[in-house]
Every structure is written in C-alpha cells, then in structure tokens.
Amino acid sequence: xxxxxAMNQVVGIIGASDNPDRYAFLAAESLMxxxxxVLLINPYKKNIxxxxxxxxxxxxxxxxxxxxxxxxxxxxKGHLKSIIELKPSRIxxxxxxxxxxxxxxxxxxxxxxVEDCTLIMLDSDTFKTY
Length: 130
Fold this sequence. Notes:
Layout: H1 2-6, E1 10-14, H2 23-33, E2 37-41, E3 47-48, E4 51-54, E5 66-69, H3 73-86, E6 90-93, H4 100-108, E7 112-115, H5 118-123
Parallel strand pairs: 1-2, 1-5, 2-4, 5-6, 6-7
Antiparallel strand pairs: 3-4
C-alpha cells in the first residue's frame, strides 16, 4: 500500500552523487527502492543508478513535490530561484546543508522547510509526502 502511494510521488535530489559512500547516493537508492520517482540534479554527471541527471530542476521533465538537499548553502543559492518558481510542497535540508538565509524566501513562497535527514525519515516512515 505504501509502495503504491509512493510510486506517484516525485522527489528531486539536489546534489545527487554516483559515489555509494555518499548520503545523496544512499537516499536516491532508498527512495527508488520505496517506489518514489527521483529527479537527480547534478550538472557534472550524465546518469546515476540508471537514471538521467539534470543540471537544474527546471530542466527535469517532471515537477518534484519534495526536494531533498545534499549541497552546501553556497551551491544551494544557485537553485533558490528555480525552486521558488516550481513551488514544491516541501524542501528537506539534510545535516550540513542548512541554508537559514534562504528560509524566509522559501516560506514566503508557501514551501515547507524541513531540517532533517532524508535517510532517517525514510527508515522511520516519517518521510510522508504531501
């Protein structure tokens, strides 16, 4: 039942990685195993885990309801305008990626800001999509 619900949910991963030791790789793998569609954002890679990578969320063919962040705050700022334009339901800042200077702009656009670990949320069934 959870799998059926998840299959319709699209999650964007800013900072997707092809390194199996990186949390962004583990998150992509876990999301896909749980039935989520993933949009992998990495301007330096062609594909990861057999999925195409995009340079930005605007280039992706689908709209993400949730975005999970795996880049530092300086790199994140380069994505802020497109995120506000796309208006996902929420954005998850994983540990070490927090960007408090961007939170007010996200809140003003109606985007829920979450500081949490995507992997822990998935493992504890608190990743609930919106």
